[in-house]
Amino acid sequence: MDCLQIKEGKSLVRVLHAAPQIGEVDVYVDGTLVFSGLDFMEFTEYVELEEGEHTVGIYLVGTSENPVINQMFEVDEGQMYTVSATGDLNDLSLLVIKDYAEKQPSSEYSTFRVIHLSPNTPAVDLLVNGETFFEDIGFREGTSYVDVSPGTYNVKIAIGESKNVVLPLRVKLNPDRIYTIYVIDQSNRLGAIQSVDGNTYLCR
Length: 204
Fold this sequence. Notes:
Elements: E1 10-17, E2 25-29, E3 32-38, E4 47-50, E5 52-60, E6 69-75, E7 80-86, E8 93-98, E9 110-116, E10 124-128, E11 131-137, E12 146-148, E13 151-159, E14 165-173, E15 178-186, E16 189-196
Parallel strand pairs: 1-7, 9-15
Antiparallel strand pairs: 1-4, 2-3, 2-5, 5-6, 7-8, 9-12, 10-11, 10-13, 13-14, 15-16
């Protein structure tokens, strides 16, 4: 990926489809079609948006009436955002996740955080190599970024109350990278998406 530059008065925004009960969607911003055919678990590219208020409409692919989500959000200047479609059919909404343009990668460490987007899963803990890293992450909640030594880690997602492990993962974290691990509901089981966030590639 080439370096991403944030112009004065603008921010960079991408969309994640993380609502497991709806299929492909089209994404409108302020009434204009911006992304078409976005499927579950897919990200769009980052696009520029002016600072200020914007309305995002999520429509079933090929339709332009009766959006499944229609929501306004505020864009600050000089930031990066992942806007995620979340929830089940009874509770669909956008979650606006700041990717923190000021966070910089380093050749000496890797950086990651966790965002809980599985609508039917209670609050979870995250264990790394057997040690609890994060606790009680609720649906539509996330952690701060943390810096760790680069390497491959045994990561376990456990239900917070029972401590039962519901998702074991083998996660490779490279230097010079900033990641988000999204916990999602995938075909009636828990899954995860490991995303390299755009702040990794900002030219400063």
